């Protein structure tokens, strides 16, 4: 037998079909021939399956014939060596690929590479079975450990970064809740976009946990901030009261930081500067009173002094201590504590040449503001604007807090109404209450974030409306259920002498009911009910028309009557339900019992509002149509309590020339259940 060349480990693939030995050979010769063929295939055919070759040699290795057994053992040794080289090469390549993938943090792909390599190792190779699989398993465990460690490290780094960011928040943080991914910094954002799903999962859990912690912390901060705002408002109220009592010493003590440690924690921007501003006001006011005392000592002139309580009229007549004296009628002399004189009284003593050199005009404005808190915001803002200077911080913060309080009280009232609407279960009331709440929230959030206690009922109401919307189908031309819908049709019919045989008379000015030189009525029909509903069942149906500005509408009772004639859209007139075929009504204007039912299906008496939606309950009609109990011929709409006395206009099915708003077209709103 020809000696075997060194094995080729690379490129082993599909099994090669072995040639059958000539039948004329003896069993021993045939066995040797097959062993030789196997050797040749192992040596020369890169696609030969060495593992199957080893299996094929097994009976020859166990042969009783020495020549066959010896040849088979030699060939098997060659094949096993080749299998060893192949398995080792595969394992090394897989390990290198897995290491590269792990370095790129593509751990799932790295583990998959290792698992695939372990599965592909030839089981006929002793090295693969005893060593190769074990080495790949150890590599797998190492990659898994690295994955765990790097994930833990990345999460720890992300959390550390978040803590650092929390100690230096942005100057203008966004209000409201943050979605997952918005909480945290770049590291967490990178983890949420990581290629490894385990990293993403852990990052999402971290984001959710941090989000909950952040929301809880924000809620606590909001509660604390609200308490501090209330404390500042109480401080400003007591400060004004002290000034009005003339007790400037007590007022000045209130403004000392040592006395107001709680206020220094927040509630306003730069609390210490706010206290400084208040103290500066008081110092200026004290200077005003000192000047007034000096003038009283130096001058004798007639004055009328406004006091905090009452007034005094006479002639300045000296001063002693903190009192100035006024000589009044009958030679009497009245002493007035200078701090009891109101700002309006001081201007009778002091003039511009007294105030300007010491820049005491702001002190006089402040005194007036303390005396009249209700008008302070308007008065001071105007005074400082005229002086072309910014409103001082302490007054700006005070007015901001007072505005927040008013807005908060307004929102509380609207939230109370929203709560009532939610408990009523009426979707329209909930929607209307939400419309009132939203601008109140927006106004408040311009000054301070909305706390969770206020946000929760709004979110609950919105959720209820979304749920209701999912059980509501609207039919409205060009709008819903799709822009292609055009099944809600109307005809305007009119008694005008020149219009009795015309359809849609003057509808560009609105769909009309009542009279204006002639009686006007409308025909209304809605098609496509079955297609829109599918298998849903109608619980409630409402025809809604948008009432626009009308000449005379308050008190009009507008009713819907089921029609009995198969009127043709764009062909209905005062005289005919199909003017193209001269199909006349039983009486003009669809007025006979053969034209429409004598009893209305729905009636609505209009109040004095305009530019509002009006709604008629047509549940029974829609249910009868869907059940096949009545034909879908639509309604006659007319005024039933003295047509000549009213002229009502609604937005028509096609847009008004003056408005062009498809959302105001007539609509049929269906509340359904599956």
Short précis:
The protein is of the alpha+beta class. It is 49% helix and 14% strand. The strands form four sheets. Strands 6, 7, 8, 10, 13, 15 and 16 form a seven-stranded antiparallel beta sheet that branches. A four-stranded antiparallel beta sheet has the order 1-2-3-4. Strands 5-17-9-14 form a four-stranded antiparallel beta sheet.
- CATH topology type of the largest domain: Jelly Rolls
Per DSSP E runs of 2 or more residues, the count of β-strands stands at 17
Question: Helix- and strand-based class?
Answer: alpha+beta
The termini sit apart by: 84 Å
CATH architecture annotation of the largest domain: Sandwich
Count structural domains. Answer: 4
Supply Rg.
Answer: 47 Å
Into which percent range does the helicity of residues fall? 40-55%
Regarding quaternary structure, what we see is single chain
Mean pLDDT: 89
* Number of helices in the DSSP assignment: 18
Write a structural description.
- This protein is an alpha+beta fold.
- The chain folds into four domains: 1-168, no CATH class; 234-371, no CATH class; 402-470, no CATH class; 475-673, Jelly Rolls, CATH 2.60.120.
- Helices cover 49% and strands 14% of the residues.
- It is built from 18 helices and 17 strands.
- It has helices at residues 27-44, 50-61, 66-103, 107-120, 126-166, 186-192, 197-244, 248-254, 271-298, 343-349, 352-355, 361-371, 373-386, 393-424, 427-445, 452-470, 529-533, 619-626; strands at residues 302-306, 311-320, 323-327, 333-337, 472-475, 488-494, 511-515, 519-526, 537-547, 557-562, 576-578, 583-584, 602-605, 612-617, 635-639, 647-650, 667-673.
- The strands form four sheets. Strands 6, 7, 8, 10, 13, 15 and 16 form a seven-stranded antiparallel sheet that branches.
- Helix 1 runs parallel beside helix 3 (66-103) and helix 9 crosses helix 12 (361-371).
- The chain starts with 26 loop residues before the first helix and ends with a strand.
């Amino acid at each position: 037998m020809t000696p075997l060349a060194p094995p080729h480990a690379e490129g082993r693939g599909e099994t090669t079909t072995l040639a059958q030995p000539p039948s004329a050979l003896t069993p021993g010769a045939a066995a040797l021939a097959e062993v030789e063929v196997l050797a040749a295939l192992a040596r020369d055919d890169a696609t030969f399956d060495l593992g199957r070759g080893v299996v094929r040699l097994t009976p020859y290795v166990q042969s009783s014939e020495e020549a066959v057994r010896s040849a088979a053992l030699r060939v098997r040794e060659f094949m096993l060596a080749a299998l060893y080289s192949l398995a080792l090469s595969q394992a090394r390549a897989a390990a290198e690929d897995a290491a590269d993938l792990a370095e790129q943090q593509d751990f799932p792909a790295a583990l998959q590479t290792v698992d695939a390599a372990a599965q592909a190792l030839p089981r006929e190779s002793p090295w693969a079975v005893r060593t190769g699989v074990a080495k790949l398993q150890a590599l797998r465990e190492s990659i898994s450990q690295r994955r765990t460690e790097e994930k833990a490290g990345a999460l720890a780094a992300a959390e550390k970064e978040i803590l650092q960011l929390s100690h230096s928040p942005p100057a203008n943080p966004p209000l409201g809740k943050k979605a997952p991914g918005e909480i945290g910094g770049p590291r967490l954002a990178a983890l949420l976009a990581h290629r490894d799903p385990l990293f993403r999962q852990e990052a999402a859990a971290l984001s959710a946990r941090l989000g909950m912690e952040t929301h809880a912390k924000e809620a606590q901060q909001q509660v604390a901030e609200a308490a501090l705002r209330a404390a500042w408002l109480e401080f400003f109220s007591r400060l004004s009261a002290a000034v009005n009592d003339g007790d400037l010493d007590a007022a000045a003590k209130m403004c000392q930081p040592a006395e107001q440690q709680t206020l220094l924690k927040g509630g306003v921007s730069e609390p210490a500067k706010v206290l400084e501003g208040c103290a500066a006001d008081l110092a200026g006011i004290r200077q005003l009173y000192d000047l007034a005392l000096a003038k009283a000592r130096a001058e004798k002139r007639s004055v009328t002094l406004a006091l905090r309580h009452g007034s005094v009229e006479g002639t300045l007549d000296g001063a002693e201590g903190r009192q100035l004296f006024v000589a009044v009628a009958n030679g009497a002399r009245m002493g007035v504590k200078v701090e009891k004189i109101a700002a309006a009284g001081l201007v009778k003593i002091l003039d511009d040449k007294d105030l300007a050199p010491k820049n005491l005009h702001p002190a006089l404005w402040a005194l007036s503001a303390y005396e009249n808190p209700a008008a302070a915001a308007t008065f001071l803002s105007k005074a400082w604007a005229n002086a072309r200077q910014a409103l001082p911080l302490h007054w700006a913060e005070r007015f901001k807090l007072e505005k927040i309080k008013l807005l908060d009280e307004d929102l509380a009232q609207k939230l109370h109404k929203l709560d009532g609407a939610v408990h009523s279960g009426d979707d329209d009331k909930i929607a209307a209450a939400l419309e009132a709440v939203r601008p109140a929230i927006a106004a408040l959030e311009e000054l301070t974030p909305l706390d969770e206690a206020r946000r929760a009922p709004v979110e609950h109401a919105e959720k209820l409306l979304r749920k209701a919307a999912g059980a509501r189908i609207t039919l409205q031309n060009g709008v819903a259920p799709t822009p292609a819908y055009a099944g809600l049709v109307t005809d305007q019919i009119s008694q005008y002498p020149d219009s009795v045989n015309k359809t849609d008379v003057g509808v560009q000015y609105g769909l009309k009911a009542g009279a204006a030189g002639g009686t006007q009525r409308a025909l209304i029909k809605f098609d496509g009910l079955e297609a829109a509903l599918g298998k849903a069942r109608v619980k409630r149906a409402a025809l809604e028309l948008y009432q626009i500005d009308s000449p005379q509408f308050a008190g009009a009772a507008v009713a819907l009557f089921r029609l009995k004639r198969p009127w043709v859209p764009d062909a209905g007139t005062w005289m005919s339900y199909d003017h193209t075929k001269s199909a006349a009504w039983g009486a003009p204007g669809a007025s006979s019992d053969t034209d429409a039912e004598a009893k209305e299906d729905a009636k609505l008496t209009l109040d004095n509002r305009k530019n509002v939606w009006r709604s008629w309950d047509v549940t029974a009609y829609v249910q009868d149509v869907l059940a096949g109990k009545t034909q879908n011929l639509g309604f006659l709409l007319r005024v039933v309590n003295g047509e000549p006395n009213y002229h009502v206009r609604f937005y028509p099915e096609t847009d008004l020339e003056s408005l062009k708003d498809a959302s105001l077209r007539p609509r049929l709103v269906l509340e359904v259940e599956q």
